[in-house]
Predict the structure.
Amino acid sequence: MSASTFRARALRIDLTGAIPFILLLIAWRTAPSASGMPEYMLPTISAVWDKAVELIGNGQLPRNILDSLGRLFFAFLIGNALAIPIGIAIALNRHASDVLRPVLTFLQSIAGVAWVPLAVIWFGIGMGSIVFVIANTIFFSTLYNTITGVEGIPKVLHRAVRSHGGHGWQLYRELILPGAFVNILLGLRIAMARGWHALVGAEMIAGTSGLGYMTMEAVQWYQSQTIVLGMLCIGCLWLAMDRCIFRPIERRTVVRWGMLRP
Amino acid sequence: MSAAALSSAGRSAPPARRRTISPRLWKGALGLLGVVALWQASIPLVGVPEYFYPSPAGVARAAWRLVETGILPSYIGDSLVRYAAGVALGVTLGVGLGVLIGISARASRLLSPIISFFFAIVEVAWIPLFVLWWGYGFKVILIALTYIVFFPVLYNTILGVRTVPQVLINAALSLGATRWQLIQEVTLPAALPSIFTGLRLGAGFAFRGLIFSEMIAAKSGVGYLIFEGASNQQTDRTIVGMIVMGLLWLFIERVYIRPLEALTVDRWGLATRAEDRE
């Protein structure tokens, strides 16, 4: 096959994938006027752009984004700092695992936005309650993956390390942390995804700032430009975090070690 | 996202462990009772108002009142109807489009990019726009749940359809199968384990989505109970709602999802776990 055929094929693939986007943009451009949908329900593209310029100009959009990211960051640190040691401890102790498993399964099944109303009573509306809910979400996600990771280490390796005189800290450094690492790392990415969903949800219910708050608040004022802008920010930020933080980490570690297909 | 690792609840214990199931059950019950006992014992120690930190006894009373007045059963019914409708619609769309994209390279080229785009805009972000368009109510919840279930089912269906062994397809074709027969007799059954993996993931996400969307957009249901209790300082009701939510999910998971999985994945031994898909 000649090079030009290849190029033509590559070009065609790109264009094929673009067709639905073009149709979507055309529909977005024409549907409101054609169906008589008022502008407050579906903003024009230029209105969204104007809104973006306005909100960046007066600092509202950057501030809301920073608030959301800051909460996610804090909650991610707290949740994982608790979940990883506790997960390892539970996985290594058969009795603790048996006693705690049903409790944890139950708490895991309600982890997330369901805690928002209670968190608001305990910590008031705003930062405290939202960080609590996200940390709770992240904690249970990571906890489960840590336990799975540690329990997945073959028993024979435990015996091997012990029979070579490994004990205490050595056992953790040489066996448990490396052995559970893949699961924990994959778990962190999932925890981040769940945390992000829960964050946006929690801000919608009980926020005073943040992207979720900005988007939901706009409903009351029929500001569809702000809503669409918020949606785009939520989607793009998540993609950016996943592609720029977690993908490279995975590529450099688990994929390179051949533990996961790219 | 790595779909296999996303399934949150534990896989069923390997058969060898079954013999030890009764001490484990006993210890597990001990753990649950211990938590309730600690909670009750901590009430006088903490010494805060009941609405701030309700006691197990108070929660039990609230639960009984909610059952007696018929509120709780009707809320659970409302939640389950919404959930079932959303999951059913999401699975139908996800399997339909998944088969189409899985067997047709052209459809895949055409639709994959835009589907990835919509996948990135998480369902939570759509809810304000849906509320603006349709107001609060069933429609918003139904569409949100459909949206949540759609993606994991779609991606796992595509995976399942693409990993059908070519030998089976050739065999069916050489026996004179038409395109439709091929889908019906070969593609769908072979993709079924993968589809159920997607269903299991989607069902889990959708349950949380149900509670969330009921908090925002409903006037009944378990999510509404959780939300409403807290805003009226009837925190005991909120906790009843949370416990019911947990029990309901465990019930759905054990009674519907696991048996489905066992029926297909385990018995046929065809399990192709979903790898990294985007």
Remarks:
- Confidence is low (pLDDT under 50) at residues 1-15, 270-278 of chain B.
- Chain B touches chain A through 64 residues (CB under 8 Å).
